[in-house]
Design brief:
This protein is mostly helical and about 250 residues long. The chain is built from 13 helices and no strands.
Length: about 250
């Protein structure tokens, strides 16, 4: 058998995970949720990347809330589990069925420095196995480059070139990603503008001729970020000159 998630013969010839393990993901204590996630990840490793659950829909229903869990360690382990199973899910139709609902949550987790690395790894894995750069670019724009938090905007901008590197076939549309970056050239934070210029110049060589010409037309080497606007600008008390001063 091929051993893919969508191949029913695989389930008959392999040992499925203990069904109770998914129930343990609802443990009231974060330590219990972490332990259950670690066991799921260990099972995936022990079975050559196969996610041996009998009901994939139920599995994702149990996993999805944990991506936004209040406990950082739970979010880390849950996102790592997603990253672990993407290559196997990509062999069938399951990736496109179950990942769209969780990808926005993964992007939002980039706000947390402690979960950012694993979130980025999961997004890169998704693009690598689907080539769906546009879908992730839209999410990064909505929850990242347009965030009210300048650190999040900067992180999203810096991540975009790494995302382009995951595209291993020609013809993938980069327009949405390029436009999301160009939008940040007018960012009020100079650090974001600098990161944007660097990102656009960095991806230029990885894009097609049309995109390269468009980036060249921006004359990025001539751009300088505007100075940041001070939080407070006060007025001096105006006093009329005395007769002696006039």
């Amino acid at each position: 058998p091929s051993g893919t998630v969508s191949d029913p013969t695989w389930y008959r010839e392999a040992s499925l995970m203990d069904p109770a393990l998914l129930d343990r993901l609802q443990d009231k204590q974060p330590e219990g949720r972490v332990a259950a996630l670690e066991k799921l990840r260990a099972s995936v490793r022990d079975n050559n990347g196969h996610f041996l659950v009998g009901n994939l829909k139920k599995a994702f229903q149990s996993i999805e809330p944990l991506i936004s869990d209040s406990n950082t360690r739970v979010r880390q382990q849950c996102t790592s589990l997603l990253c672990d199973i993407i290559p196997e899910l990509a062999k069938g139709d399951e990736l496109e069925v179950y990942m769209p609902s969780v990808l926005p949550l993964v992007v939002k987790n980039m706000r947390s420095v402690d979960v950012r690395d694993v979130s980025e790894s999961t997004l890169k894995m998704f693009v690598k196995h689907t080539g769906n750069l546009g879908a992730v670019a839209l999410l990064l724009q909505e929850h990242g480059t347009r965030s009210d938090n300048s650190e999040m905007r900067c992180a999203a901008v810096k991540f975009m070139p790494l995302l382009v590197q995951q595209v291993d076939k020609g013809g993938v549309d980069s327009r949405l990603l390029v436009l999301a970056l160009v939008e940040r050239l007018e960012d009020p934070d100079p650090a974001v503008v600098t990161a944007t210029i660097k990102a656009l110049l960095g991806i230029r060589g990885m894009l097609g001729e049309t995109a390269r010409k468009y980036i060249d037309s921006l004359k990025l080497n001539e751009r300088k970020p505007l100075p940041s606007v001070p939080q407070c600008m006060t007025c001096l008390l105006y006093t009329s000159p005395s007769p002696r001063d006039s």
